[in-house]
Amino acid sequence: MSTFWSIWISVIVLGTVFGCVWLLWATRKSQTTDTETDRTMGHSFDGIEEYDNPLPKWWFYLFMATCVFALGYLALYPGLGNFKGLLGWTSQNQWEQEVQQAEARYGELYAQYGSTPVEELAKIEDALKMGQRLFANNCAVCHGSAARGAIGFPNLTDDAWLYGGTPQDILHTLNNGRQGNMPAKGTMPGMTNEQVDQVVNYVLSFSGRARDEAAAEAGKQVFAQACVACHGADAKGNQAVGAPNLTDDAWLYGSTYDWIRETVLHGRQNQMPAQSERLSQDQIQILAAYVYSLSN
Ligand code: HEC
Ligand code: HEC
Predict the structure, then answer these.
(1) For an engineered disulfide with 74, which of 4, 30, 79, 236 has Cβ 3.0 to 4.6 Å away?
(2) Are 253 and 188 in contact (CB under 8 A)?
(3) Residue 242 near residue 180 (C-beta atoms within 8 A)
(4) 56 to each of 44, 69, 84, 219, how far by Cα in Å?
């Protein structure tokens, strides 16, 4: 703030406080007696008149006390332009102090949990409670507060994993994030609409839901050409590229004919954001244990 505005603000603030004191004092002095009188102000509105009585003493002293308090406050805390106050308080250093206190309280526990292997950590109830809170704050927006996921956001409580459910896999997912990329029409960009229909029927046949058995049979060929590179010859998926198992009943997107057709026609792009920049390693370890505990 420039010196001009600093002085401007100080003058207005102090002027107001001293103005109040002066006003109180001046009007008090003009009164000759402290006792109540019958004197009125001399005007009347609809027969209502106003007494010209002095302020009650308690009221006067209370008002004076607030002015004294204001001056004390302005001396201790910032309020007069650039003057920082005698205590040197800032919202920044109060926040830092609170963070330090919290770190002193939780830091030791965090460090202890952070160096415990995920499998063991997943058996410690207090660590899981901490993990649940971290999950609610950092992950629930996408995965849901019960971690059951939604369309496009994987369910973390089942045994179906895009990228693997071992502690190392989960830690890798959390630290580095994941990028799921299914190209439109797989590795066969020139796929005809008929072939799309065939391969969709073939995918549906894994769970006995093919609409058209003949098309499903023909879809086997298309699948071999366009899909096995990622989803595997048995369609059980490949965690190295995050290609889901298409034979189980866990679906990232919808499992109906229309949903699967949409996936094949237009592909899918999906991202799990990396957490290593946002969260500490100890927090990630605790979260990994929480996620691990959901399905183990
Ligand atoms: C912005 C949304 C978003 C947030 C926030 C988010 N995730 Fe994810 N997460 C995803 C998406 C989307 C995927 C699937 C990525 C894919 O399909 O390739 C995913 C995948 C995962 C996986 C892999 C699941 C599997 O089947 O292999 C795990 C584990 C995971 N997230 C845990 C977490 C945890 C723990 C947090 C909190 C620190 C978190 N996620 C925060 C969107 C999010
Ligand atoms: C380059 C690798 C790749 C190829 C080729 C590929 N996919 Fe995928 N597919 C993926 C990935 C990765 C995902 C997960 C996308 C995500 O994380 O959102 C996926 C998702 C899907 C899904 C959604 C599964 C669910 O749980 O909702 C279906 C269905 C699917 N693929 C079918 C196919 C079919 C049919 C073909 C062949 C025409 C094919 N894919 C070719 C990588 C591939």
Answers:
(1) 79
(2) no
(3) yes
(4) 23, 20, 37, 95
Q: Which amino acid residue places its CA nearest to atom 37 of ligand 2?
A: 227
pLDDT in tens, 140-199: 999 999 999 999 999 999 999 999 999 999 999 999 999 999 999 999 999 999 999 999
Give the model's pLDDT for residue 209: 94
Q: How many CB atoms lie within 10 A of CB 42?
A: 8
Answer whether 229 contacts ligand 2 (Cβ < 6 A).
yes
Give the Cα separation of 84 and 295 in Å (integer). 55
Tokens 């991202």, residue located? 271
- pLDDT mean values, one per 10 residues, the chain (296 residues): 91 95 80 61 84 82 94 94 91 92 87 96 96 97 96 96 97 98 96 98 96 96 98 97 96 96 97 96 97 96
Q: Is the CB of 231 under 6 A from ligand 2?
A: yes
- Nearest of 250, 245, 241, 196 to residue 223 by alpha carbon: 196
CA nearest ligand 2 atom 18, residue:
270
Tokens encoding 134: 């971290």
CB of 196 within 8 A of CB of 264? yes
Instruction: Decide if 30 contacts 24 (C-beta within 8 A).
Output: no
> CA 178, CA 163: separation in Å to the nearest integer?
8
> Which residue minimizes the CA distance to atom 42 of ligand 2?
182
Structure tokens at 214: 């003949």
- From residue 127, alpha-carbon distances to 76, 124, 219, 269, 276 in Å are 42, 5, 49, 34, 19
- Ligand 1 atom closest to Cα of residue 287: 35
Tokens of 161: 């994993």
